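Standup notes, protein team

Yesterday: finished cleaning the Ramlibacter albus set.
Today: tRNA-dihydrouridine(20/20a) synthase structure.
Blockers: none.

Input for tRNA-dihydrouridine(20/20a) synthase:
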Amino acid sequence: MTKQDDWRLSVAPMMDWTDRHCRYFHRLLSRKARLYTEMVTTGALLHGDVPRHLDFDAAEHPVALQLGGSEPADLAKCAKLGEDWGYDEINLNCGCPSERVQRGAFGACLMAEPQLVADCVKAMVDAVNVPVTVKHRIGIDKGESYEFVRDFVGTVSEAGCNVFMVHARNAWLKGLSPKENREVPPLRYEFVHRLKREFPQLVIGINGGITTDEQVREQLQALDGVMVGREAYHHPWWLASWDAYYGEPREVTRAGVEKQMAEYMARERQAHGTPWTSIARHMLGLWNGQPGARKWRQVWSDHKLRDSDPRDVMALAEEALARAAEML
């Protein structure tokens, strides 16, 4: 059963960023926030290394698998794979504007074919018992019609989707890079608020341009959830306060989280040969805004230390942090 609180706060799926190591780090900061995988294409699962794409730590729950694809049968198979691997939600990407994704005929360009999206959702809903959700934009190219996104949500919801995470910008399919598509098309929060008023029975969350607690509180007065992307990645300590939105504030410290990450890096290195550098990159923003943060980052970014035990690297980083803070 869908509970609206389940989507109150979440970290957006971000390619090359929200891998399983990043999600483990974020979970140390917040017990309650919903976490999403990077987008995984149906082709990668049906013809590639499934464990590499789907493996995750049990600590990450609640965690959602985001799929990219446009063939109902393929999406149904991959949704079932995701459920079998233990994911709490299957999310369909209808928001990515990159040309590579467009060539695969999925992502944001799917918004032009709401009935196809409905068919995809129906196939997945029939295949799994976990929620099937959709992340999408408010429109494509330079169209400014609210009716476009209203009709999209209406059609797809009839297929059994009850949760929509809405990036409150259009996706311009030509002429803008993915980065520019996160910044250039104007934000229209009012479109998302209208969706909630017209579809009160649905869970409607918002994504795009939200960087402060004040903005989160304002959006939660009108909507069921807020999804944060790059701000959560670059300033991860913000997540440590998110559980208060669920009435369950969490007491954690930056040093405590860093210690747990160093232990995790050591385990991953021993079990899988994972270089600690590929994990540490996700936590480089942990001390942002604090005295000595730059010196601390320099230690964790020093590839000359790549053969060192991550717990030894942590000791060096903490020493650099303390020394820089004293000087300041």
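Follow-up from PR in the comments: The chain has two domains: 4-246, 254-327.
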